[in-house]
Specification:
With 243 residues, the chain is α/β, with parallel strands linked by helices. The chain folds into 2 domains: 37 residues, no CATH class; 167 residues, Vaccinia Virus protein VP39 (Rossmann fold). It is 37% helix and 21% strand. The chain contains 8 helices and 7 strands, in the order αααβαβαββαβααββ. The protein starts with 8 loop residues before the first helix and ends with a strand. The mean pLDDT is 93. Keywords: Methyltransferase, Transferase. This is SAM-dependent methyltransferase. GO terms for molecular function: methyltransferase activity.
């Protein structure tokens, strides 16, 4: 799962015993060599699906990390793209990946907590990849309200969400075990490192988006395949600020 360029076991242990912000500052230089970076096939599938919803002028990558989502937005937006993250280390890596002067829309980087976004309603498209496990369920509604307030009327907030693994499968037990270990770690050690895989259930997410003011739809990401019952392995959530 990890390449030779990725973090060592010791580096991962230090990260796990740090705060969420400090942990990502530490792992940032090697993050793209870990399995935690969103795979290109997911980025490509989302790009293809969202392209038909445009056109878009300005885009926002919420919790941009090292900039994978910014790369998607640069393909979809005509004028300006903004990446926002609370980790200075991750933003430094993102800046290096998209140096000034590249062709395409202008790219801005903002260090801020997604729970208090510092933007007026200026964006036509917001997206996020792989970040929602860093927010506790009680914080999710507030996060969605912040994104809603950053979008222009008619703006879209999109993100992929995978189908849960079958109960009893290897993936099911792996994610259950990880979340259990993280809960024990956070009960015994401060500061907390918030990262959970099983706290972002689709039904709860749709309810919170609706309460935040969005009109919500789902689109199958057929490029990512189907499950044995024919249902998609992943869907794209499309939340629209109508006015």
């Amino acid at each position: 799962m990890f390449t030779k360029q990725g973090p060592t076991v010791r580096e991962l242990a230090v990260q796990a015993l740090s705060s969420t912000e400090r942990g990502y500052d530490l792992i940032a230089p090697k993050f793209d060599h870990t399995p935690y970076r969103t795979p290109d096939r997911v980025l490509d599938a989302v790009t293809r699906e969202v392209r038909g919803l445009g056109p878009f002028d300005a885009g926002l990558d919420v919790c941009c990390g090292t900039g994978a989502g910014v790369g998607v937005l640069r393909e979809l937006c005509r004028e300006r793209v903004t990446g926002v993250d609370f980790s200075a280390g991750m933003l430094a890596e993102a800046r290096a990946a998209f140096p000034p002067g590249d062709e395409g829309p202008v790219v801005d980087w903002v260090r801020a907590d997604a729970r208090a976004l510092p933007f007026a309603p200026a964006f036509d498209l917001a997206l996020s990849f792989g970040a929602f496990g860093h927010f506790l369920p009680a914080e999710r509604f507030g996060l969605f309200v912040e994104v809603y307030g950053s979008l222009r009327p008619g703006g879209r907030f999109v993100f992929p969400i995978g189908a849960p693994p079958p109960v009893g499968s290897r993936a099911y037990w792996t994610l259950l075990g990880f979340d259990a270990a993280m809960r024990v770690r956070n009960a015994l050690w401060r500061p907390p490192f918030v990262m959970y895989y099983r706290t972002f259930a689709l039904g709860d997410v749709l309810e919170d988006l609706t309460q935040a003011g969005f009109t919500v739809g789902l689109r199958p990401l057929t490029d990512l395949g189907t499950r044995p019952d024919g249902s998609p392995r992943a869907r794209l959530v499309v939340a629209t600020r109508e006015r």
